[in-house]
Specification:
Elements lengths: L1 H7 L1 H14 L4 H14 L3 H17 L16 H16 L3 H14 L7 H9 L6
Organism: Desulforudis audaxviator (strain MP104C)
Protein name: Tetratricopeptide TPR_2 repeat protein
């Protein structure tokens, strides 16, 4: 639903994310989705990177692991995992593969079944010309 709203009303979406971050500068969901919006939709990686980095930093501290299911199954972790994926993707696209490696490794550990499609990023690291 957020994706549709961001595509249909980009100015409103951007303002809503800014207001959410004014209210709570460490809101992982707002940091993550605003960073993803800037990176994917507005093609502004320079603005997206600090938001995604902060989402990863805060999200790592708030990771929920109930001991029964992998973190990728828990709704509370999705903004953090999406921020990890998009930050790694941003770094790979900028030719900063060495910086992306730890984020991809963290995704692999937290999402062993590949629900967040980290394997595509690993392929890009070995073959940079394989961008979709």
């Amino acid at each position: 639903m957020l994706d549709h709203w961001a595509e249909s009303f980009p100015f409103r979406f951007e303002r809503a994310m800014e207001r959410a971050l004014d209210f709570d500068p460490d809101c992982v969901m707002a940091l993550s989705y605003y960073g993803i919006f800037l990176f994917d939709d507005l093609k502004e990686p320079a603005r997206a990177e600090p938001l995604l980095r902060r989402a990863v930093e805060v999200g790592r501290c708030e990771l929920v692991w109930d001991g029964e299911s992998h973190p990728h199954h828990l709704l509370e972790n999705r903004p953090y995992l999406r921020a990890l994926l998009h930050l790694a993707d941003l770094l790979v696209q900028q030719g900063r593969a060495a910086e992306a490696q730890p984020y991809i490794a963290e995704l692999r550990r937290l999402d062993p079944v590949g629900a967040y499609e980290w394997s595509a990023l690993e392929r890009r690291l070995t073959n940079p010309k394989s961008f979709n």
